[in-house]
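Sequence in, structure out.
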Amino acid sequence: QVQLVESGGGLVQAGGSLRLSCAASGSFRSINAMGWYRQAPGKQRELVALIRSGNSTNYADSVKGRFTISGDNAKNTVYLQMNSLKPEDTTVYYCYARCQLVLRYLEVWGQGTLVTVSS
């Protein structure tokens, strides 16, 4: 019913920048929140950044001051601008959306996009 399409991952040198995008499509009344999580091999998935419908945001401590999340409500799209990337940022990043349906909400995940930061 709801799909997330991610783009923007890739290979970058330490200190460089990347911009991730995620667009939501399908049948929903609204989006309550969208964001990005990441998961390294053998570790739990962790929040990177989240933006809510009222534009409040949350960031992991490890990315504060380096990453910026923003949204385009008209396009149901969320962006993650990643600056000053470090090798430890290397992992798969997953888009997340909490979508409001008629009588309930639905949490949806993207397939993931790989970010590789070389030292």
